Amino acid sequence: MAESRGQVVVGVDADADAPTTAVIAAGAREATRLHLGLLLVHPLPASPPWLVGLEPPRAGGAPQLAQRLLDHLVEKTAAAHPGIVVRGILRSGSPASALLAGSAKAALILVPLHTAADEMLREATVGGESTYPDVTVVRKVLYGDNPVRALNNAAADADIVVVGARGGGGIGSLLLGSISDGLVRYATRTVAVVRDE
Q1: Per the confidence metrics, is the pTM higher than 0.70?
Q2: Distance (Å, rounded) from C-alpha 37 to C-alpha 27?
Q3: CA 34 distance to own-chain centroid
Q4: What is the CA angle 120-115-42, rounded to 5?
Q5: Which residue among 44, 85, 157, 167 is the one 20 to 30 A from 62 at the CA level?
């Protein structure tokens, strides 16, 4: 059952290919482990593809086809993982903006596409770059089934690891999220956990 403190958000691709299937399975495992809901977010391009020279879809149009795919993925995932609540939403815009829009309560966000992950990371950090122009920002998307291990390995040469805390309000806001907690426990570098004011 999903708790109010968050959910695991997974970006899904229209092709439902092997990387998409793998990332949905990883998201479902994390949602089960964390006792959270699973939200599948399907980005829908703002401009229909036939406007850029491709043939228009036949019956139903792009939104209806995407919704049918998403409904199928939700049903399949819910059947395979009956212990969690699985929902799906279509979001207009780029994959990155769709994921960011659907991640307000996200405890963890997983994406199968390199371009979506790169774009999402850029959109999430561009404000900091303009606020602190003297700071060099290096963006690197990490892949793996264990976020704590991936971040810990990536920070091997760092002096300090800074992570955000996604408190859910009330008692939940006093607790660290699973990734922050894992880094505090197992990191080989100093870890700073920063809460959004």
Answers
A1: no
A2: 10
A3: 15
A4: 70
A5: 85
Lowest-pLDDT choice from 5-9, 30-34, 54-58: 54-58
User: What letter represents residue 156's amino acid?
Assistant: A
Q: Token pair of 179, please?
A: 């990734």
Give the strands of the sheet with 7-11, arranged side by side.
86-92, 37-44, 7-11, 106-110
Q: What is the mean pLDDT of the chain?
A: 76
Distance (Å, rounded) from C-alpha 75 to C-alpha 24?
12
With cut-offs at 50, 70 and 90, classify the pLDDT of residue 86. Answer: very high
Cβ–Cβ under 8 Å, residues 123 and 117? no
User: Around Cβ 145, how many Cβ atoms within 10 Å?
Assistant: 13
Two tokens, residue 142: 């990490």
Q: What is the reported pLDDT for 47?
A: 52
Q: Which residues are CB-contacts of 64 (< 8 A; sequence separation ≥ 6)? A: none
The β-bridge relationship of strands 86-92 and 160-165 is unpaired
- E-state strands within 122-189: 160-165
